[in-house]
Write a structure and sequence with these properties.
This protein is α+β, with helices and mostly antiparallel strands. It has a four-stranded antiparallel sheet with strand order 1-2-3-4. The longest helix has 25 residues.
Length: about 200
């Protein structure tokens, strides 16, 4: 009987220690390294998760993520779906307040997508015009968006790779990525040129 009580006491102490260890380890939020922050931030962008983007980016304006409909949001997510980031080197300043992560970023090349789209769609448009058909603005947009979705959703979408130095800074106890035009151009190459081209086509 005494041996049984002793064994039970040992088991109970073990359970108690295990529980306390679990509480201590899970009580605080794990601080991400600069590289882990970059990877988490990119995942948040790909998912268009405004809350997480604010968590990993410094001063990110999420007002541009207020889409008119869910279809627009899914289209942006589609453009970002091919995004791949390969971290190569992490450097933290001596004071621990700033850091850089050198990474290779591969994303969709929208300039090539636009060029390929024009080449492929012109034949269809001329064929409709030759048959006396006129495309409305809505039909033109639907034709363009359908083409892009099919191309980007496939395996042969044009991509481009860029070596980039990503800057981060400490905000409180967490690392946050600093934004600039070079960074976002690397995510979707030629986005501005693509949007200008589509607007002119409309």
């Amino acid at each position: 009987m005494k041996n049984r009580q002793k064994l039970l006491s040992i088991v109970m102490i073990g359970v108690l220690l295990f529980t306390l260890a679990g509480c201590n380890s899970g009580g605080g939020k794990k601080e991400l390294s600069p590289t882990e922050t970059v990877m988490a931030g990119i995942d948040a962008l790909k998912e268009q998760d405004a809350e997480k983007i604010n968590q990993y980016f410094d001063g990110y304006d999420v007002s541009g993520m207020e889409y008119e409909n869910e279809e627009d949001k899914e289209f942006v997510k589609l453009l970002l779906s091919k995004l791949e980031v390969e971290p190569e080197e992490e450097t933290i300043s001596e004071d621990g307040e700033t850091a850089t992560v050198k990474a290779n970023i591969t994303g969709i090349d929208l300039v090539k997508v636009y060029t390929q789209m024009i080449s492929d769609l012109m034949g269809k448009i001329w064929e409709k015009m030759a048959n006396g058909e006129e495309l409305t603005d809505e039909e033109s947009q639907e034709l363009v968006m359908g083409y892009i979705k099919d191309l980007v959703g496939g395996d042969e979408v044009p991509v481009t790779s860029t070596d980039l130095m990503i800057s981060l800074k400490k905000v409180g106890d967490a690392w946050k990525m600093e934004q600039n035009e070079t960074f976002f151009n690397a995510l979707i190459s030629g986005l501005d040129l693509f949007e200008d081209g589509v607007e002119e086509a409309d």
